[in-house]
Design brief:
about 375 residues, Rossmann fold, seven-stranded mixed beta sheet, binds tryptophanyl-5'AMP, two-stranded antiparallel sheet, Tyrosyl-Transfer RNA Synthetase
Length: about 375
């Protein structure tokens, strides 16, 4: 367990309060600075809140992707979700970011559903549980609104026949000392876990074009290994763009978790549930008493409602500035900013839930019938060695 000033980020767990600058240094990624952000907006002709507000904060080789795109080159997107439970809003933001890139650059998206990973990683799930969650999760992902002809969602246990030859080759290039040092595997780790990284890396080789992966930074260790072995297959190193974690409602430590429902806003929550959770659980930077709050105001840096509005939900910069001024000076109360957050969360989730109503047909297209899906089922992933 890390001490008070320490934190740990692995693909399976986040502990402590993450210092994102230190994480950039530790993982050896690059900060997404204003110049690069402006370039993305210029090249795509579009704006994005998550980028603008630094929720997306780091990258690998995004500049290469833009250089080549400007010269007429192509790239593709890849992201994923391991179905180990119902999804909360933290799980869906990378998908909305991916959709934004798809719309802005008109490129293919591959979405991996590793319906094997969490069987190996946790001791508590049956494959039948994973199958139920996979079906539910895929509908949530379909509701994001990806282009049905340029998107392929696949479950590992279904698509493995098309990828197995390539998985053999990828797994052959990663030795155990690398897996141990990158993932912390030890003598108690089951051997399924040792093979799994080959499967998560594999979609970075699905096209000859360079791959760009939008995901939270916890997944970066896989990309680090891919970047070390890509040359063996005469392939580009994958590029990546990293978002921060949405913190738990209950405070800045760790990340939101579906196993602690009080800490999370689930994608299926209705307005009343959202309001109850936000009002009873959202960690406040406001004063303990009304007098104290009026005198000193709120600490915005730890206030979950303000952080969520800033990072994810409130588009209007002027309105955000007004809230920041009034709340930090004590004029606005915690209950008032929480009401604003509830309204913003609900407008996001209401639209998402409405799109999910029609997800069944869309799922068929994204997994099996759309142009890209259809093509992928007729393709064996090939890798030169
Ligand atoms: P999973 O299912 O844990 O998470 C799905 C995606 O959500 C991101 N994420 C978060 N983002 C913001 N706030 C949070 N609190 C939060 N919690 C999770 C994750 O980084 C991920 O982008 N091994 C992967 C599944 C996977 C994958 C991929 C992910 C397979 N291939 C390619 C990204 C890209 C996993 O367990 O993700």
């Amino acid at each position: 367990m890390p001490d008070k000033n320490d934190f740990e980020v692995t693909p399976w767990d986040v502990e402590g309060t993450v210092d994102y600058q230190r994480l950039i240094d530790k993982f050896g990624t690059e900060r997404l600075d204003n110049t690069l952000k402006q370039r993305i907006f210029n090249v795509s002709g579009d704006d994005n809140l998550y980028l603008r507000r630094d929720f997306v904060f780091s990258h690998r080789d995004l500049d290469n992707i833009l250089d080549s795109f400007e010269d007429g080159g192509e790239f593709y997107l890849y992201t994923g979700r391991a179905p180990s439970g119902k999804m909360h809003i933290g799980h869906i933001v990378s998908f909305y970011l991916t959709k934004w890139f798809q719309d802005a650059f008109n490129v293919n998206v591959y979405i991996q559903i590793p319906d094997d990973e969490k069987y190996w990683a946790k001791d508590t799930l049956f494959l039948s549980d994973i199958d139920t969650y996979a079906e539910q999760n895929i509908k949530q992902i379909a509701a994001v609104g990806f282009d049905p002809d340029k998107t392929f969602i696949f479950r590992n246990r279904e698509y493995i026949g098309n990828m197995y030859d390539a998985a053999i080759k990828v797994s052959n290039e990663v030795n155990y000392s690398v897996a141990q040092s990158v993932f912390g595997f030890n003598s108690a780790t089951n051997i399924g876990m040792s093979f799994y990284p080959a499967l998560q890396m594999l979609p970075t080789f699905f096209e000859e074009n360079q791959c760009l992966i939008p995901a939270a930074i916890d997944q970066d260790p896989y990309w680090r290994i891919q970047r070390d072995i890509a040359h063996k297959f005469d392939h580009d190193k994958t590029a990546a763009i990293h978002n921060k974690f949405i913190p738990a409602l209950t405070g800045p430590e760790g990340k939101m978790s579906s196993s602690n429902p009080a800490s999370a806003i689930m994608l299926e929550d209705d307005k009343e549930t959202i309001s109850n959770k936000v009002h009873s659980e959202a960690y406040s930077g406001g004063g303990d008493t009304l007098e104290e709050h009026r005198e000193h105001g709120a600490d915005l840096s730890v206030d979950v409602s303000y952080q969520w509005l800033h990072n994810l939900f409130l588009e209007d910069d002027n309105e955000l500035r007004r809230i920041a001024d009034e709340y930090s000076s004590g004029e606005m109360l915690t209950s008032e900013i929480k009401n604003i957050l509830v309204d913003q969360l609900w407008s996001f989730l209401k639209a998402h839930q409405a799109r999910k109503e029609n997800a069944d047909e869309l799922v068929q297209q994204l997994m099996y019938n759309g142009s890209l899906a259809n093509e992928m089922w007729n393709t064996d992933i090939e890798l030169d060695t």
